[in-house]
Design goal:
α5 links the parallel β6 and β7. The protein is about 40% helix and about 15% strand. About 25% of the residues are buried.
């Protein structure tokens, strides 16, 4: 598995983001020296002339995704696209909060994943970032193993390795003839979040793995 490092694009001005390049390089360098993860940094590793979106989609689909959230990150079109692709693919993902002055408008789809705060100047939490990344990779792997080891195949059940959110549910087509079940890891979503999701996708039932297994006939 490779690591996708998503950082503020080199295209256009990046006010308040003078440290983003150093942050991305130090995280990638630390991981290279201390882990087995290969890395892909969007602003460096796409050869000239290749379709940007095709390269990004190819790499994200088989990677763990790390977003370096600096002040200009959410204003960058390609940064937003990368996050959406990662969410739709359901890959392991964390956000490194390196905000300095703040954002004009935060990007909604950066939520629902672990966030590690790191000072953009000190850059002093690289081991914690690497540890959280590896935790997410392991959790994703164990979830897929658990699903694979279920005694029967469940073609009408949607297994999600992270708690569902609006963007992940939006990727599921509708089937008017049946109400499908989405199964995700424990713990259950809170009631407020479930109400929002049900209002949007009333055709889906949301269950944690524990809840779903308890409903199956013995």
């Amino acid at each position: 598995m490779a690591l996708i490092v998503s950082a503020t694009s080199l295209v256009g001005p990046a006010r308040n983001d003078e440290h983003w390049k150093e942050i991305a390089e130090e995280i990638r360098g630390w991981l290279y020296q201390n882990s087995a993860l290969a890395s892909f940094l969007d602003v460096y590793d796409i050869p000239a002339g290749l379709p940007f979106h095709e390269v990004i989609e190819h790499h994200i689909g088989r990677s763990v995704f790390l977003a370096i959230q600096t002040d200009s990150y959410s204003s960058r079109e390609w940064c937003r696209r990368e996050v959406i692709v990662a969410k739709r693919r359901g890959v392991p993902m964390i956000v490194v909060d390196c905000l300095n002055a703040g954002e004009e408008r935060g990007f909604a789809y950066l939520g629902n994943v672990p966030v590690v705060r790191m000072d953009p100047v000190e850059k002093d939490r690289l081991p914690e970032i690497a540890g959280r990344l590896l935790d997410e990779v392991l959790a994703d792997f164990l979830w897929r193993c658990r699903v694979e080891l279920l005694p029967d195949r469940w073609p009408d059940i949607v297994f999600m390795s992270r708690p569902p959110e609006l963007i992940s549910l939006a990727t599921l087509g509708t089937r008017e003839e049946e109400r499908r079940v989405v199964v995700y890891p424990d713990p259950p979503l809170d009631q407020e979040e479930q109400r929002v999701l049900r209002a949007t996708r009333s055709d889906l039932q949301l269950r944690t793995m524990t809840q779903w297994l308890a409903e199956q006939p013995s």
